[in-house]
Every structure is written in structure tokens, then in C-alpha cells.
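Entry 14. Structure prediction run on the chain below.
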Amino acid sequence: MALKSSSLVIWILPGIEELVKKLKARNTDVYLISEGFRQMINPVASILGIQQENSFWDLMLMSSLRGVEEKLLLFNK
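Output returned:
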């Protein structure tokens, strides 16, 4: 399913919205974890009704000590 949020077109797999609704109906905490960017993840969390404090994404940091060193960190907010 394609949904539009501001200037983004977001593709959500069929059945995901229904799954999230069923989990929430059972009082199950739902988390969104992605390797994507915050700008893409927050709209998806909003569309699915997942609290932003339950959404996590990766942020790639680069350091120039001894060449290019990459560290992958998990962030939310």
C-alpha cells in the first residue's frame, strides 16, 4: 500500500496496519526498528499509530581519525 505523508510516498506491506491494530488491541507494545533515516521512519510510525519513543533507526557517523572510520549507532528521537 502506498501512502503519502507530506512530500514522501511511503510503501507499507499489505497486512502491516492490520497486524499493528491487532497487537495494540491485545495491549502489546509495538516497536518500529529500521535501518532507514528518521525522516522516513517518523511518518511511518505516525501512519501506523506507533509512538515515536517506540521507533528506532540507525544513524551512520563517520570519523576521519585514521582514514574513514564508520560507526553504526542506534538512535531514537
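The first strand starts at residue 2 and ends at 5.
Filed with the rest of this week's runs.
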